[in-house]
Write a structure and sequence with these properties.
The protein is mostly beta strands. It has strands spanning 9-16, 19-25, 31-35, 41-44, 49-54, 57-62, 66-69, 75-78. It has no helices and 8 strands. Strand 1 (9-16) and strand 2 form a beta hairpin. The radius of gyration is 13 Å and the shape is globular.
């Protein structure tokens, strides 16, 4: 079993006109505060679980979940 702690990291994977892909790794209880963007947001949960807030409403997320947000949607996450 891998017990290595994942610390919060942000890696820009793709950044071109019309597309930006960011990979986030969050440790337990780490958070990204509420914010919005002028682009569509797609969230794919690769591992673990957390709480993803959409317009301040909490949603439990887990491995395999996919979220699709329209531009301007307020969102935040707590791992």
């Amino acid at each position: 079993m891998n017990t290595e702690k994942i610390t919060k990291s942000k890696k820009l994977v793709i950044n071109r006109n019309g597309l930006k892909v960011v990979r986030l790794n969050l440790a337990r209880n780490e958070a990204i505060p509420e914010h919005s963007t002028d682009a569509d947001v797609v969230v794919v949960v690769l591992n673990g679980r957390g709480i993803f807030y959409i317009n301040s409403q909490p949603n439990i997320i887990k491995k395999g979940d996919v979220l699709d947000l329209r531009p301007g949607t307020l969102h935040a996450i707590t791992a």
